[in-house]
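DATA SHEET
Item: assembly model
Revision: 1
Owner: S.N.
Input lines:
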Amino acid sequence: MVTPNSNLNSQSVDINRIHDTALVNHFTENIGRRAFLLTPSYPFMFIGEIIDVMEDMVELCVETTHFSQLENRNWFIHIHNIEVFYIETPDGPCIPELRDDL
Amino acid sequence: MIRRFHVVAIPIRIVVNNFGDHNPDGRMYVLKENEEKVKKLVRQNPFTPVELVQPLTIRANEGDVVEILFENQLPFATGMHFQESDYDPRTSDGSNAGFNPSSLAECGETVLYTIHATTEGIHFFTDMGNVSSTEQGSSLQGLFGTLIVERRGSWWTDPVTGGPIESGVFADIHNPFLPSFREYAWFFNDEMEVNDLTGNRPLNPVTNQEAESFHGVNYRFEPLGNRKRLIEEGIVSPELDGEEVHHDSWVFGDPATPILRGYRGDPAVIRLIHGAAKETHVFHYHAHQWLRDPSNERSEVVDAQAISPQSHYDVWPLYGLGSLPGSIGDAIIHCHLYPHFEAGMWGINRIFDTLQDGSQCYPNGIPIAALQPLPDRPCPPKPTPERPGFPNFIPGKVGCKAPRPPLGIVGGREMTELERNAAVPNARPGAVFVDACLGNPVVVEFNVSLIELPIIYNRQGWYDPKGRIYVLDEEIDDVLSGRKEPEPLTLHIPASSCIRMNFTNRLPHILDGDAFQLVTRTYENAFHVHFVKFDILVADGASVGWNYDSSVLPGETIRYEWYADTELKAFFFHDHLFPVSHQQHGVFGTSVIQPRFSRTFDSRTGEEVFHGTQVTVQNPLIPDYRDFSLFIQDFAFLFDKNGCPIQPPPFPGSSEDPGVFAVNYKNEPLQFRLGEDCDPAYSFSSYVSGDPVTPILMAYEGDPIRIRLLQGSHEESHAFNLHGLRWPLERPDNDSILTSQHHIGISESFTLEMEIPRAGDYLYAFEDEEDVWLGTWGLIRAFDEEVPDLIPLTDRPLPPPRTQPLPKVTGKPPKLADPLCSLPPLAPLNAPIRRYSVVAIQTPIVYNKYGDHDPFGIVFALEEDVEDILCGRKNPEPLVLRGNQGDLVEVTLTSMLEFEKFPFQDGIHPYPPVKEQAFYPPSLRISLHPNLLDYDVRTSSGNTVGFNPDQTVGPGERITYRWYVFSNVGTCAMWDVADLRNHRSFGAFGAFIAEPRFTSNYLDPHTLQPIRTGTSAVIEHPLFGRFREFVLVMHDGVRLEDKNGHVIIDPLAGVIPQADLDDEVDTYDFGSRGFNYRSERLINRYREHPVLADLFSSKVFGDPATPVFEAYPGEPVFIRLTIPSERRRAHTFHLHGHNWKFDPRDVDSRIVSYVGHMVAGDAQDLPLIGGAGGTFNFPGDYLYRSGNIRWDIEQGMWGIFRVHPCIQPHLPRLEDS
């Protein structure tokens, strides 16, 4: 027997799936562009080029994070862990250039 | 699990160092199985420290029941009172309080305590049978210890043998699921009796006067005086001065104070406890940082932490021993208050890099005790002749001062072979034995010198002829020539930078003598830093243990390297070689580690800069902000314009509270700001006396700001208050409570982040009476229109062009404010309005039934209560107003003050005293200032400040303040700011309680009828139900008279059995104290019935005059605690048998049973965990009290929280209708 709660659950799973799929598609469509991501876990902030999307993991060539020792390498970031993002497109504002030596 | 201990309280001779200094009348707790052994060892070693003589430290696990069979061998009744634990107060409180049966043991008797170890952490215990603050007392003489509650399933071993232990301050703790760690119990205690080898009080070898009192750790102290005497006698290098080698093991060998040993990277905790009795210390641990609230990952990171008597913290150094870079060597741990540091309150954390199996020796031939590696960590390598490990690769010479580090000093030496073997491959100046910067980050480099020059502190010409400050090399000429005003050096550095500092010592060899100090040869100095990462051995800017001496001689330059791994607060820097001698002359500064990618600009010119106490910060990712650095300083040795010393000590070199106070090398004493009308109400007004010379922090309306709050020198607590603004207490934590006040001690650093909602002048003040009197205040000035000297923030709308001229000094009081012309910044148009009509009146206040009273009380009262108070039907209590979140509160204030009713109409207020007494007549104007609430600072702050309109009222005048309760911030302190000298300590204060939104009723606890005010209330909420609310207003500095009309000169008048006439009382210790205009001074009880153990007993004396708050077991209870008034002495608050969250809004926050270092303006909310009766809802009488044995408890700072076991006719239950 299907209860109202389980109905709700199945509905929410579907919505989540749509949401995740849309995110995956969006990142996939923007492979090769620069992205700015915020995550709730260390090191919190990433800026770099989207290299690839594998299932629901984004591969980012990270040029800037919170911590310089973790830069200039590829990071695999789970899409669920991305709280905020912005992908630079030709018709949008640029992600600021962040330089330690300015 | 039940753990059983048999604890004995014994009299014991405590030898406190290797010089034979000792306390012949010590008292301590010891396990029964060690009693005979320790007594025998002490008999055999009358002048040598005995290791077993240490504060008793026992352990249990979370969830254990601990049964203590307590046996008393002291000649008076004693007990063991446990903090943080749960217990039945009728059997296990370790006191004789209220109507509880006594749980003290008489001499020769035993008592059994049952303690529930519910929460992990420190469960400090002490005696409540004898709270005398004299040497006849118990705590003062060492009777304290701790139960440490470990995580469930833990066990502990001896760090030397690896075998099991029953007690001891050092242990290795293990758990099947968690990493093993080193545990070190560290007990500060002060004021303990100490005699020297001859049985006399120790003398200071320089002044030949009695030395500073005992300030030690774990019953040990290592004062400079003793070591200096060895220099003077020629036993060690006679060419030394003393202070520079105070901590140098090469010269003197290791100290008697604790050495906390571990291996590089070991996880560790210092269980930091203030055992007794008086001072608030600042615990500082070199090269390590920790979370202020260790259970909250979003807590502030600190490396210096103030701690007041009977309070405690867990210090878990981040990254383990050696911090992030894995440094090795000796990291000194000390009280940062310099007179205490000099007196011997320090020890060492020794971090080894090679295995210590007991076969090695220190360079002086003393064997190194074995140290078991932690079982779950890699075993350190064994020492070899080529790689002997710390400290045996350092080319020092025993009996001489430590060698200078290799590579660091310009023109200095290279490495020896052993040093090269120990060094990292890329060894470089300032980073030889670890790579402090973890690779190759961006480097910023500074050239800084320490110079001497006269500094003028105010317009009256107060000056320090021997100011000593850090300056950038490129600015030396400008500063010396007067083109640039001296200010504490403040550098701004982006996070993730490698900082290279080239530091040059340009001081003269000699710090000349004067009324304050004797001539001192401060021939070498350094640049010691906090917070950043570095190689402890070569870049500490200090000379500690077996480390190098990383300082330089005059004319020399040394290179340090530090790493700012992340955004930090302002990090403090100062000299560590002669700080006792000269830091109070200005030898301090800060570097602010700004968010990465930030750029800093001069706020006036817009020019890009990297230093300055006021800058504007731009960042591409986060909003721009103004950055202000404020340094409070005490012990400032100033002279007036005629060359006379201001507040010199009794003799040069004395540390008896010499000098005055300042902010950023400036002060603005109130005595000079009376104006033509001689009315203190306008002391802060720029219309009357112009702007102060102290910093005015400039911003535009709406700007985000960050205040870097630091204390540069030298010994005392200060109470920073900011009127009209508020900030999160734990800045990284979005759940943090808000505050408008902060206690600060030397070397602490806090970042206060907020926005300025509206234009106006905001008063900041270190607002205890004496500080503010001597000029430690200034302004934050926010403009609503463009001004030429302030660049706008780039990411905010440009300020509109100026249409109104800037205000000017008129010499006349400003016009009255019109608060009803505007709304508070956050208030919506349709906020419900709650109105109060308040009158300031003068009335006698009776403080207790023994006739102690204040005949000149000044109180705020609701208009409807004034008649009852004035005709004596009602003994006043501090005014408590309440409002709900969302309320717009309109408070109409009227003054009924009469000049004839002031005690000191000649304008000289002699008692309680302040430094620099001067004419300052009582004002008939009065005001009401609340902290934390939202209001327009130009109309409703209750201060007449800067160029704001007048917000005080004189006789016959009325003002209606508008305060918006923007959030349920809980307790807000209220006080008068019109005359901080003549009003506040007489009672001109109260509290505002911001209740949750939709609170439906504030009820009388006895009738359950609605009330308008009252310190005890039942708060009714449609969702939360009812809870009891008890408002405790702690206050001090009260001038009381006894029943015969004689002034009571507290604290000494209240000392039991009687004060020692030699007791040193600082100005800010004077005055009586209590809660809610009541004081149950124990001396009154003692005179009636001279039995120490009975002094808290209601069976003998009836209930105290202080509030007896009542509840039934399990009822929800909020204690609203505040201290609006007024002295600088910090107090601890402790409630027996109950706990609450350190941050009540944060579920992750640690659990505590005390509030530490309370000073003026503090406001706290204490929701009791488990409600009345604690976790187990035990009925009984619970003491609430100060934790300061000297001098609060005797002086009446205590009361009772009564949890009734059965229904009382006078007290309805919360569920009753």
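QC remark: The domain at 4-87 of chain A is CATH 2.30.30.100 (SH3 type barrels.).
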